[in-house]
Specification:
The chain is mostly beta strands and 338 residues long. The chain is 3% helix and 49% strand.
């Protein structure tokens, strides 16, 4: 008997992810082949009828992932709470149904500010996308997302909110020699009890971090040290921040920094971005190394102990004296926007 046609039956998961400029990305993932057998290395998480009902169990089920054996973990719309930190294994992509459709709440932290304080850890070539992530710090130190050294991990369309009432150090994303790519994402760190506390949106250590279209907001109503972007140290690395808004605010006493570059050997480059350090006292940009500003706008005077240089690429120019000439946030300190 001749077969004139063959019907291919498959089940698909459609993910709607809102990205920059209001575009809608539709991802169709076939969950079964033409023989109705599940495709290998695709794991689903859902309130009902998924392989797992929470992301923690799904990630913990993965063994042997790698370059020739990648995995995709797809989380259906809904809110999920996990009772332990999440570790995304190497070559595993953890994705939701959009940052406003799928949310994960993770609580924890550590008594030491290192990878043990991470609530989500990204390993080699792992990815995090299309998710809302709520981090609740319950210990002395907390890191929302931590990229392991040499990981080259990617974060895309992820909205991270981190709240803390008493942690000594709180970091939204920590790129630890990982050469991360972060795009179309937001970091929102807030505290109502920040006296003698340190809060940082994006922290970079010896990494050529690439951040494109990120929105960083670090704020407190009761003091503490607030920093939107902190570069600890660079060797040969050249981090770049593009098309982004970086804001540090507070209404109490303490320091507020839009950008800090502590490296004396390499520059941090800002392109088509805006930096704002806003406080009742001492808003500043702190530089030990160089800050290259390309078609960007910065408000906030240079810190009094800064020894680095600022290079304005474009029609304008910026020097230390132009920073120091104004102690008021109302004045425009660097304008390389033309």
């Amino acid at each position: 008997m001749k077969i004139f046609y063959k019907v291919l039956t498959f089940v698909s998961v459609i993910l709607f992810a809102t990205v920059a400029f209001g575009q809608t990305k539709v991802v169709v993932i076939p969950m079964a082949g033409d023989d109705l057998k599940p495709l290998a290395n695709i794991i689903t998480v859902a309130k009902q009828n998924g392989d797992f009902d929470n992301p923690l169990d799904a990630l913990n089920s993965i063994t042997g992932s790698g370059f020739s054996n990648p995995y995709l973990v797809v989380i259906a719309p809904g809110s999920y709470t996990v009772n332990a930190p999440l570790e995304v294994p190497a070559y595993v992509h953890l994705t939701g149904s959009g940052s406003n459709q799928t949310s994960i709440t993770v609580s924890g932290g550590s008594n030491v500010l290192d990878e043990t304080a991470a609530l989500i850890t990204l390993n080699s070539r792992s990815q995090l996308s299309s998710l809302g992530v709520r981090i609740i710090s319950t210990n002395a130190h907390a890191i929302g997302v931590y990229a392991m050294p040499s990981s080259q991990a990617k974060v895309s369309d992820v909205a991270i909110s981190l709240s803390s009432a008493g942690s000594l150090n709180t970091v939204g994303i920590y790129d630890d020699e990982g050469d991360m790519l972060i795009e179309n994402s937001s970091l929102n760190i807030t505290s109502t009890s920040a006296t003698n506390r340190i809060y940082t949106g994006l922290q970079i250590y010896r990494s050529s971090t690439r951040a494109n279209n990120i929105n960083v907001r670090v704020g407190s109503t009761s003091g503490g040290a607030m920093t939107a972007v902190l570069v600890e140290s660079l060797n040969r690395e050249t981090p770049n921040i593009i098309n982004s808004d970086l804001v540090a605010r507070q209404n109490g006493g303490g320091s507020v920094n839009g950008v800090i570059n502590q490296s004396t050997s390499r520059a941090l480059t800002l392109r088509h971005s805006q930096v704002l350090a806003n406080a009742t006292s001492s808003p500043e940009i702190a530089l030990d190394g160089e800050l290259i500003v390309i078609s960007s706008l910065i408000r906030g005077p240079l810190g009094p102990n800064s020894s680095g240089n600022t290079k304005c690429v474009g029609s304008g120019s910026a020097t230390q004296s132009s920073f120091l000439s104004s102690n008021s946030l109302e004045a425009l300190d660097i304008d390389c926007s033309t």
